[in-house]
Amino acid sequence: MASDDIYILGINMTKFGKHPDKDSIDLGAEAAMAALADGGVTMADMGILAAGNLLGSPGFGQSLQKQIGQTGIPVYNVANACATGATALRTVVMAIKAGECDMGLAVGVEKLSGAGLLGGSGKKKSDDDTWTPDGRFGAVASTDGRIGTQNMPGVFAQVGMEYGHKYGGTSFELFARISEKNHNHSTLNPLAAYSKSMPLEQIMGDMMIAYPNTRPMCSANCDGGAAAVLVSGEKLKSLSDEQQRRAVKIRASVLTSDPWQDGCQILPDVNTLTRMAANQAYETASVGPEDLDLVELHDCFATAELVHYDNLMLCDEGGAVDFFESGKPFRDGERPVNVSGGLQSKGHPISATGIANVWEVCHHLRNEAGDRQIEGARIGLAHVIGLGSACGVHILESSAA
Amino acid sequence: MSETATQIPHVDYLVLGDSPHLVANECTSCASRYFDRRNACAKCFGSDFTKAEVPTAGEVTAFTIVAFAAPGVPTPFVAAVVDCDGTQVRGNIINCEPDADHVSLGMQVELATYSLGTDSAGTEAIGFGFQPM
Ligand SMILES: [Zn+2]
Fold first, then answer.
1. How far is Cα A147 from Cα B98, in angstroms, rounded to an integer?
2. Along chain A (401 residues), what's the average pLDDT of each consecutive run of 10 residues?
3. Are residues B34 and A208, on separate chains, in Cβ contact within 8 Å?
């Protein structure tokens, strides 16, 4: 191992689902302590903590330290929408790369059970009873619902429909079949919030949220935490053979924001920044999409998964529908996508997601994924996107010979 | 109370009158168009803008039919992106049944206005959407 490489030494995700008896700190502490134990280290070894929790009170990282160990190390409380967990991971990567420390801890947690639709609010502009222009659009009334939609299912529905308009081949049924795939995958994942397969008719017949996304085609709001311990290659050399064998090499860690594109402020462009991140990651890692044994991508809605096949270059440009129809993204296919069940069934506790998808990939690369193990997995990719936007891509490689 | 009620546009980029239309803030350096108040251009960083009239007819390039929304937002409604001769516009599809049999990708639409209601001072707010052509 090269000294300037960075490895995941320990990693954990809690069971995703309803945790009424645990608060955010409990879930963070559970994931963090388990990740430390998984790596065979303690808080005394950590040189940095990066922590994300969007819906809790400020200073989550410090609150967490008080439950797992206050050692005086720098804490970075990070926030980047659904890419918060990946941002925490990336923060620790940068600190180690900069030589500031040789080990660090990244944690992401969310308590989201029972939360309604995210994004957009129907609140009135003013309690005043006269029309008064307000804000950057000089709006006299809320624009959400009157001038398009700001709710997440609606925004991502349009993202998928836009792809269909550009390249053709999409339909309500196609998007529902993507969801069917992920719900089927989830049956092998004991940590998923929902692990039931769903027939296509049930998915299509369920409550419509924002056409063409029905309820099971939307990410599941749930509670959960995830944490990872990262170590420098130099430090890893001094650790045990077992720790070295289980360590997962971070071949690339990339974070992008959305560059200006025509129309990107009318409908968020989740494509360009993902493609940029993927390009940078493939170049840094010196691997191509054809080298990936599995991919966990941000299927916050069934419509989103389709466009990311293309954005991550798992298919030719415009070929996402054919890629799906070919069977490649199924767990027994050539390029398995979201074998965890994805956000639609595993669940999407926002800040935890960007570490939990890395955990899923690591689990396979360590050959520890049990029933859902992708045999012989050596290289995998984890992708998240936070609307606004931020995109995180990590390419990971097994250390085992 | 005057005989002709005063009107106010829902948003300041909607111009009312005999031929209602949208007006964008266009960057004088790179011609990028924005509908909100800008500090600088997100594409070229220029800070000089001029008003540009947006064509009222266009093509639906993306849509969704929102069935569940935040409290206070009436549903169902069709949210769409309309390409008005090169300018991307966000708006609802109105005067049309909100279902997948009546709305389709590539359909041709035109700007239409409607009343949002009248306030206590007698001012009527006018909103816009796009209707099938
Ligand atoms: Zn410009």
1. 15
2. 89 97 96 98 98 94 97 98 97 98 98 70 56 95 93 96 97 98 98 96 97 96 97 98 98 97 93 98 98 98 98 98 98 98 96 98 98 97 96 95 63
3. no
Q: Is residue A141 part of a domain?
A: no
CA A132 to chain B, closest CA, distance in angstroms equals 9
User: Which chain A residues are Cβ-neighbours of B127 within 8 angstroms?
Assistant: 141, 146-147
Helix A60-68 × helix A24-39 angle, to 10°: 60
Q: Which helix (H) or strand (E) holds A351?
A: helix A350-365
In a domain, A180, yes or no: no
Domain membership of residue A135 (yes or no) is no
Q: Could you tell me the pTM of the whole model?
A: 0.95
- Name the residue ranges covered by the structural domains of chain B: 8-132
Output the CA torsion A345→A346→A347→A353 (10° steps). Answer: -140
The minimum CA-CA distance between A306 and chain B, rounded to whole Å, is 15
Domain membership of residue A164 (yes or no) is: no
Task: Kindly report the CATH number assigned to the domain that includes residue A326.
Answer: 3.40.47.10
Shortest distance between the Cα of B110 and any Cα of chain A, in A, equals 14
Cα(B43) to centroid of ligand 1, in Å?
A: 5
Its ipTM equals 0.93
* Domain extent at residue A50: 6-114+220-398
